[in-house]
Amino acid sequence: MPSCTFFVMDTSDHMRNGDFEPTRLDAQQAAVRLLIDTRLSRGPENYVGLVTTGTAVKVRAPATDQEELLAESIRDLRAGGTADFVSAMKVARLALHNRTNKAGDARIVAFVGSPVTASAKELKRLASQLRGINIGVDVVLVGEDASTRASLEAFVQAVGKDRDNSCVVAVPPGRNLADALFSSPVTRGHDAGAAGAAAGGGGGGGGGGGTRGSAGPFR
User: Fold this and answer.
1) Residue 155 belongs to a domain with what CATH number?
2) 53 phi and psi, to 5 degrees?
3) How many CB atoms neighbour CB 120 within 10 A?
4) Per-residue pLDDT at 164
5) Where is coiled-coil annotated (predicted)?
């Protein structure tokens, strides 16, 4: 089945943190490379795009199946500024809504390594917009604080309401981020959610906002 996935990458100052080797940003880049390869290898009608949020929200790559373009868009990322989760998600939503081939799965995989300060009302409105055009959302917490985790769990539950197409995955510091995601629904798909959560050993989450594992505080 064709699919289109946009990755939202956190490139804020928080991603300089060394609680993931060698930094959160480097670990995120390695994980996104793995996920891009996994998605594109599933078939010829699978596309991937990339949005970053830090100094500014920017579309680094439109929806494409060109691995070289995607690799180049990830290679030279630098950490800086403050992430704007809601704005980045809106940019990714618009890109997915305007994609040429609207058949198949539409998904945003958002990496979050800094505090999300959006209000509950803003997140609820965003969740409704995503659910309204059938976009699934996977959130990967790369380090967290309690309020951000709670806010994003509620957000993902609202996106996946009455559907099993979204999840939160919290990966503890010190783990290999790419390895943790490999056995989670983010990589395996939501039809394998339960197995992925069990295999993740603290890195996976089930659909509809389920979570496993814990992560260290934002610093």
Assistant:
1) 3.40.50.410
2) -140, 120
3) 12
4) 85
5) none
